[in-house]
Amino acid sequence: MTTQERILTVVKQVAQKPVPSDPEESLFESGVLDSFALPDMVSGLEKEFGITVPDSDLNPRKFDSLARIADYIGVRVS
Amino acid sequence: MAFLRAFGSYVPARAVDNAELAARLGCEATWISSVSGIEQRRYAGESETLVDLAVNAATNCLSRAKMAPDEIGLLLVSSGSSERRFPGPAAETAAKLGVAGIPAMDIPMASAGSLFGMAMAARLAPHHGPVLLVAAEKMSSIITREPLDRNTAILFGDGAGACLIDPQHGLAEIRHSILHSDGSFAQDLRLEFGEPLHMDGRVVIMQASRKLPAVIRELLDGQKESTASVGVFIMHQANQNLIDRVAKALDVAPEKFYSNIARYGNTSSASMLIAAAEWNAEAGGFRKGEPVVFAGFGAGFHWGALLAVGM
Asked: Nearest-CA distance from A15 to chain B in Å?
């Protein structure tokens, strides 16, 4: 699976809702994620990619869309 | 060494339920309870000041301790909703308690103020003698300002809590505390004078969901205790969903986290002590040798946890 597909899998598992096809669309504004699902999604990403998201990066703006998540994961993994 | 000797609380008489608030905010009452676990909150009367709330909780605490005000060595008053820039409510609270002259210090800290106050009181009690810590909040004067923000207006209520920390004896020994602060997210939860409360709920929940379980683990690991040995967790009553999330992260049954948020909402720094007072009076309180964990998180961000063991 590609990074994008793995991210999509995590988001779908947490949200239990259809995810917007546009990777730039906000996962919050579209109602896919709420405040309390966000920490679960970050935990899911940490597990899936074997990374640790430091507290200083626990900012919703970094995880607002599939594209932003991919950018973040790309930096962390590299 | 210091001991928790008594708790006290006071909430104003006027209860505001979700139906009343929903009508004012243009939302559903069921939405309020689903996103917060809150069913009602208390609002102080217009003439009831933050100091009045503090004095009532302090008096309740001293009565439960069977202690006269003039036996207090130091008064600490925590509040994030002070009505003016200075002086804070501590000196006036001391005067109204009839103990003008003793040192009275303000802790201008919302939400985590009572947790920080407990930790400070434990360290100051051996020097000053019994320390009365009061946390008082009149959040209604802030959240009912126009324009109303339903995301904050649904959460907060008014009230005050208190605890007496004694250097010699009490219901439980304060064994240890851990405090942290990080101003990196100061802009995400703040109250400027004369302005509405600003809260980025996503940032707050994301940070609190991670930091609270971590500091509780840090506290328990350092004291060679486990979550299983803890009798009850008494947390800042911020949001029922957050309390449940912290319990889940620690793999602890949610029933072990005492909660009264349904009745009082989030009373900021007062909430943990109001919860402690009710738990102590109604749920049996401390048991000999059993650890109890207090924890708080709030604007700053400031967060921490404190371990007390029943005598």
From this structure: 15
Burial of B154 (0-12, 13-18, 19+ CB in 10 A): buried
Contact A35 B207 (CB under 8 A): no
Q: Determine the Cα–Cα distance for residues B159 and B163; give it in Å rounded to an integer.
A: 14
Residue A59 has which token pair? 């900012």
Q: Which of B184, B200, B242 sits opposite A56 (nearest CB)?
A: B184
Hey, which CATH number is domain A3-9+24-77, 1.10.150.130, 3.40.50.360, 1.10.1200.10, 1.10.3720.10?
A: 1.10.1200.10
Complex prediction ipTM:
0.89
Distance of CA B277 to the CA centre of its chain: 11
Backbone angles phi, psi at B232, to 5 degrees: -155, 150
Could you tell me the mean pLDDT of each successive run of 10 residues in chain B, 311 residues long? 97 98 95 96 97 98 97 98 95 98 98 98 98 98 90 97 98 98 96 91 94 98 98 98 96 97 98 98 93 98 98 96
Q: Is pTM, for the whole model, over 0.90?
A: yes
